[in-house]
Amino acid sequence: MRHVTALVIKFLITATVVYSLLSIFNVASILEMFLISLFVTGGAYIIGDLILLPRFGNGIASIADFGLATVGIWLLSLVFIGAEFPIFTLSLIAAFFIAVCEAVFHIYMQEKVLTSTDIEHDASNSSPNRMQTEFSEEKDVHDVENKNKKG
User: Fold this and answer.
1) How far apart, in Å, do the first and last CA atoms of the chain sit?
2) What are residue 31's phi and psi, to 5 degrees?
3) How far is Cα 85 from Cα 97, in angstroms, rounded to an integer?
4) pLDDT value at position 83?
5) Cβ atoms < 10 Å from Cβ of 41
6) Mean pLDDT, residues 136-149
7) Could you tell me the pLDDT band of residue 2, with boundaries at 50, 70 and 90?
8) Burial environment of residue 66 by CB neighbours within 10 A (0 to 12, 13 to 18, 19 or more)
9) What's the predicted TM-score (pTM) here?
10) DSSP-assigned states of every residue in 71-89
11) What is the CA radius of gyration of the chain?
12) Given pLDDT bands bounded at 50, 70 and 90, which one contains residue 143?
């Protein structure tokens, strides 16, 4: 249930930005804007919120969401709308607003949706910043031989 609520919130954020920008220029129908919002939300939730956020934190996940939203809105707009409008510029603007909202959404995700065991499990297994060092004593060959003679 936690993930459903988070998906609805994320979809509402994405849909609001997409509807606001694409409807200003009258370049897309409501169905096309709905599909763009749906696909961008699904991809960004899986990659940005469930994979990157627990492992790398809010900053990296927000940057990744900016990139995912830019590419997602741009490619899906090309498929659904066509190339007669400067879609890439519109995609960058939409992705900026989505990324700003995502930074706040990630705080909600970390506090309410992702459990502490999920975050600790992901961070301990895959974070390159968490390395362990093994300590041991150096043994001299002569010390080992003397110990063997005494014993």
Assistant:
1) 66
2) -65, -45
3) 20
4) 67
5) 23
6) 65
7) confident
8) buried
9) 0.72
10) HHHHHHHHHHT-SSS-HHH
11) 24
12) low
d(C-alpha 24, C-alpha 137), whole Å: 70
d(CA 145, CA 82): 80
Distances (CA, A) of 36 to 5, 50, 53, 113, 141: 20, 20, 23, 24, 69
Report the amino acid identity of residue 98. I
Question: 63 falls in which pLDDT band (50, 70, 90)?
Answer: very high
Query: In this predicted model, what pLDDT tens digit does every residue of 23-45 receive, in sequence order?
Result: 887 778 899 999 999 999 999 99
Residue 51's identity, in one-letter code, is: I
Residue with tokens 């991809």: 43
Backbone angles phi, psi at 12, to 5 degrees: -65, -40
Closest CA to 98 of 137, 146, 28, 43: 43
Query: What percent of the chain has pLDDT above 90?
Result: 46
> Cα separation of 12 and 98, whole Å?
11
